[in-house]
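Query protein
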Amino acid sequence: MNSMGIIKPKTLVNIRAIIWDLLSQWKAVLIVALLIAALMTGYKYHKAMNIYKAQLAGQATAEQQTTAPADEQITEILEALPEEDRTTVDYMIHMKDWVDNQKEYIDNSILMNVEPTNQRTLMLDFYIDAGERSDSILASLTYGYIAFCNNDKLIEGIRQIIDPDKDIKYIAELIIAPNYGNYISGNDDGDAVFQVKIVLPEGVDAAAIEEVVKNAMIGYSAEMSRKVAPHTLTLLRACEAKVYNTTAVNNKNTIIANIFNIQNTYIKTMENNLSDQQKGAISAITALKKAAKNAEDVTDTADIAAGASEEPVKPGLSKKYALFGFVLGAMLYAFLYLVLVIIKGNLAAAGDLEYYTGSRLIGEVYSETDHKGIRKLLHSKIVDRLRYSGKTDADVQIGKIAASLEMIGKHAGADKLSLLSLSPNSKKEGSALRKIAEAVREKGIDTEIVDLADGVDESHLMAVNNCIMASGNDCKASDIIKLTELCREFDAKQLGNIYFQEI
């Protein structure tokens, strides 16, 4: 026997053959991919249209309620929802409001937009000279001056220099004062020093800011002398420096991180689980809130409703989902085909015979045939010509196999060769196997075909001494393994394999 090793009982998955099969089935793959792409795109479009219609309905409801304030309209929209849906919608609105407020703060805050790691800062040191030597008196004076840093008139004076149009709250956060009661005391001299810092945007006149703060503080000293204790207040030192503002850095990073987390984790996750009705309600409420904010000075609620919302954008077909569906369809087809190949357990290529039988491959015959109907989608003549280049002339291959069998028979000293056929196609008149048998007989070697397509009958092997296994891609690997084992048991010398396939 021309043995090439021990039989492998495990089923072989020939990935290379599967890839070639899929390439040959490109028409079927294309149809399935386009079908899945159409379904995915249609599903996305249908879902987007439902949201669009819900938005239109919400907008129409808002317009119909022009006589009601925005809060009442929002309440009516929420009450129209099932009770179990209201909490989710209300929570989502609050999260969106928080994100919008934080974004607005980041955009408008002068402090957040002045580089916090290198902030231009004006530092003013004020000296308190009091006749009283009591620490409580000095603490009270220092406390009063530091509290005065939040005075509206002082902040307004700074705003007029930095940006008269900026909201006063964004000016107030530029003033950095120490904790109340902190001061540097000379203990025996009845004096103290406190420092006030003002963050300055580039281009702002530091001297003008210094003058405003100094005049406001010294002007306030008369009131502090009357309320607390007589004293004098002097600007001891003024200087400008670039400062690393740790608090501003941490606050900015925290706000940005929180915005990102809420937008990309909570809001997106919740939106995926919302019903179309909930999405429509959120869209309508968001529009009302936006309108109310844009028209804070307008008292006519009809005008508010008229400018309430932007027109919802009518959805179109999504190219992204079409591409995703196309790729998914192709992958799904390939996966199902792989599963089918594994379940069927048929031979995938000629080389598989060597793996299962441990005997060499004598030859392979590929017979071209015309495929009809749906089978046309599963074959491509162009791909098959590339795959079986140089092997598609069946007559040439039959001649080579017959010549090889003649030499094998003579070498083995066999007066008779048995071609064990597991393929149903070998029964056909004029089949490649019958042509091979006739060609070998003409060379003087008695050759028989043992038909085992309907099942292996052990009685067929009783008189077999030298055999060649003939099978193809319509044969199961398990039958090949079983027949090989029976040949060993019945001492039938297996001289090799012949592979057949219609393309």
Q: What stands out?
A: The longest strand covers residues 231-243.
